Fold this sequence. Notes:
Elements (H helix, E strand, L loop, with lengths): L9 E8 L6 H18 L2 E8 L13 E10 L2 H10 L1 H4 L9 E5 L7
Antiparallel strand pairs: 1-3, 1-4, 2-3
Amino acid sequence: MSSTPKPKLHKFVLFAPDTKDSARSTVQKQHREAIAPFVQSGVVKVAGMTVTPESIESEEAAVKPFGSCIIYEAENIDVVRKMVESDIYYTSGVWDREKLVLVPFLPVTSFP
Length: 112
């Protein structure tokens, strides 16, 4: 009795800057709900919002979103690209599609 070997999984990093007039806050709940199963299954390893440098200058500073950074683990980049392109941040124009970067990632440290 032979079992099918598990496919080799690779890590990919997405850097997705927001568009100038991003409507991030209006679709954030849907984005988080949709990404939750990928987080729970381990496909999404790390995810978060990038912010402007001024956002962290003091405790009182207003947080100004800049975009998103997500690290995925999947069989290939096409699988990840499909997830990215079906994300509400992508389909609703929160992420700037022209500036979006999705590349393989070879970490040298362990993940939290």
